[in-house]
Prior knowledge:
This protein is α/β, with parallel strands linked by helices and 258 residues long. It has helices at residues 30-45, 68-71, 76-95, 112-119, 146-154, 156-165, 171-176, 186-201, 205-217, 223-236, 240-250, and strands at residues 6-11, 14-19, 51-56, 61-63, 101-105, 108-110, 122-126, 130-132, 169-170, 182-184. It folds into two domains: 6-201, 2-enoyl-CoA Hydratase, Chain A, domain 1, CATH 3.90.226.10; 205-250. The chain is globular, with a radius of gyration of 17 Å. Residues 24-25, 27, 64-69, 71, 82-83, 86, 108, 110-112, 134-135, 138, 142-144 line the site of octanoyl-coenzyme A. Belongs to the enoyl-CoA hydratase/isomerase family.
Amino acid sequence: MDFENVLIEQHTNLAIVTVNRPKKLNALNTQTIKELHTAFKRLDENTEIKVIIVTGSGEKAFVAGADIKEFSDFTVEEGTELARKGQELLFDFVQNLGTPVIAAVNGFALGGGLELAMAAHFRVASSNAKMGLPEVSLGVIPGYGGTQRLSQLVGKGKAMEMIMTANMISAEEAKDWGLVNYVVEQIDLLPLCKKLAGKITNNSSVAIAAAIKSVNANYTNCVNGYSVEIENFGLSFGTNDFKEGTTAFLEKRKPNFE
Length: 258
Ligand code: CO8
């Protein structure tokens, strides 16, 4: 498969996957999600690859969310299917990969973008990065696992605040809150991720895959939570607030919710 929106570089046993739609701040449309699935699957099956770094193209955004234009006229059924398919193909898929995935958060990580970073095994951010789940400002809720993974990473209270206010937090705040492990200047971001990857590659890949599975096992009781999220994400598509929220974004104005 030739990729339109994803770049892959291989440096011996390290692979860098870059989401490459810089004009749209690397927003995740269906095509990009499918390409990312194929890229991660291929790299996981490649026994040479010991660590994968995922990042965004350019210096402004990691990923600014799911592609709002693509889903703005979706029905409840289409919205539910989009969330279910996306979680299966990308977000759950990445979380459960045996190959470690580090997210190099190089700018805005919003909505589906933060959800992708949170599906990775851990995160490193550049100092300009901003993170948030702004879905309720569009009349919708996080649909790619964000209600579950954000609570796991920062705790329920902070997750509730971030989701309800739709506020973005700075890289430093994200570090204080446990959402990212390190904050460095943009220029040092990939070098630090590569250094961490180097340490990982010294260790047993078989043991690391088993450790990932074991850590994740503690969160399997959230399977129900993910389903509830998909259901409520889908239901948002039947509301007037969703129509108003997404239309307002596309018309570059503030929404006027009922
Ligand atoms: N979707 C589509 N296009 C986008 C997105 C997006 N999420 N983010 C940015 N873009 C586009 C803009 O429309 C603009 O395109 P154009 O030049 O054609 O008008 C281009 O990228 C550049 O963006 P801006 O001009 O807006 O750049 P600014 O520097 O002014 O602002 C922001 C940067 C603050 C990041 C701003 O772009 C923004 O608020 N983006 C939207 C952020 C957002 O709300 N993300 C959450 C989306 S919802 C979501 O992710 C749901 C997840 C669960 C989904 C499950 C199934 C769909």
